[in-house]
């Protein structure tokens, strides 16, 4: 470290302290400890032991699972946070209080959308292009119900951070693998790859997470596209994501909703699906939350309309 031009003085001083106080031999390691240390360093990184969840944890349906009640002691933290903000400001550089943070990384959060990847295994077996895009939409909507209670934002991953996991599918005796990496810090970009070669599909893409503050509300925008490929058919589906909208920050009840239009498109089969995630109307009792509407088109022909709650 003494010859490292990028090391600062504090690092060198810390290194000197280790040399003089690290052990009883004047900072020199014995041969035995040298050997033990080299043996330990030669070992590869240990993986976290997999523990299967006996029951899936999900919150109750409806708007009450997307409401956050702020305690009196935390309101002061929110006010001090709001003093740093201006309308239209990007929130990526603002330090958020821990009580609105979900205790996991954004890379982990992205894996929720592939929790039911077995639906994609079914989609690859569909003979008709219309049947395949219907199954793709089923899988797409299955990724939104798994969420923590209240308003929770996952932690920003550090540059170079990775997250891996997999899902076992007993029906097809296959496994879907997931790996994600934080490839940029400013702006924050997360890249991911999902693969199940036995069942014939893989997904890759990157997400730029942006957020905007509007006064009493803020929006979290996932800017990017996922590309789903059915390997045996050489079909690629390009998929976009909705944005998350939080309102009631200064006054009212803090509520989280999804909004915006998303598309699923396959140029080879000329299949196109559009979904609109609708925000709750401004006037009370004029509509319910979590509504979606959409359509599936093949070429110029309208094949189906979609209506309901995500």
TrEMBL record:
Pfam families per record: Oxysterol_BP
Give the residue ranges for region: Disordered: 1-42
Swiss-Prot/TrEMBL keywords = Lipid transport, Lipid-binding, Transport
In this chain, composition skew of type Basic and acidic residues spans: 1-18
Family statement drawn from the similarity comment of this UniProt entry: Belongs to the OSBP family.
What protein name does the entry list? Oxysterol-binding protein
Gene symbol of the encoding locus: OSBPL5
């Amino acid at each position: 470290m003494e010859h490292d031009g990028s090391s600062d003085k504090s690092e060198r001083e810390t290194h000197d302290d280790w040399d003089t106080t690290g052990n009883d031999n004047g900072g020199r390691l014995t041969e035995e400890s040298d050997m033990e240390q080299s043996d330990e360093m030669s070992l590869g990184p240990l993986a976290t032991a997999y523990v299967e969840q006996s029951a899936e944890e999900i919150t109750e349906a409806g708007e009450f699972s997307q409401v956050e009640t702020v305690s009196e002691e935390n309101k002061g933290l929110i006010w001090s946070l709001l003093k740093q903000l201006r309308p239209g400001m990007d929130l990526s550089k603002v330090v958020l209080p821990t009580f609105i943070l979900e205790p996991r990384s954004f890379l982990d959060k992205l894996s929720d959308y592939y929790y039911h990847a077995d639906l994609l295994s079914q989609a690859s077996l569909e003979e008709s292009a219309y049947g395949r895009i219907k199954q793709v939409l089923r899988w797409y909507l299955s990724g939104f119900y798994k969420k923590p209670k209240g308003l929770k934002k996952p932690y920003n991953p550090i540059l170079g951070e990775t997250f891996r996991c997999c899902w076992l599918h007993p029906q097809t005796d296959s496994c879907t693998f997931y790996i994600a990496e934080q490839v940029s810090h400013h702006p924050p970009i997360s890249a991911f790859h999902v693969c199940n070669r036995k069942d014939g599909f893989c997904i890759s893409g990157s997400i730029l997470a942006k957020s905007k503050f509007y006064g009493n509300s803020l929006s979290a925008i996932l800017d990017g596209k996922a590309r789903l490929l059915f390997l045996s058919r050489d079909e690629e589906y390009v998929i976009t994501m909705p944005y998350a909208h939080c309102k009631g920050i200064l006054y009212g009840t803090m509520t989280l909703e999804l909004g915006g239009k998303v598309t699923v498109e396959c140029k080879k089969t000329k299949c196109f699906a559009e979904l609109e995630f609708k925000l709750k109307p401004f006037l009370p009792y004029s509509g319910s939350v979590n509504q979606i509407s959409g359509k599936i088109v093949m070429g110029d022909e309208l094949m189906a309309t979609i209506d309901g709650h995500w």
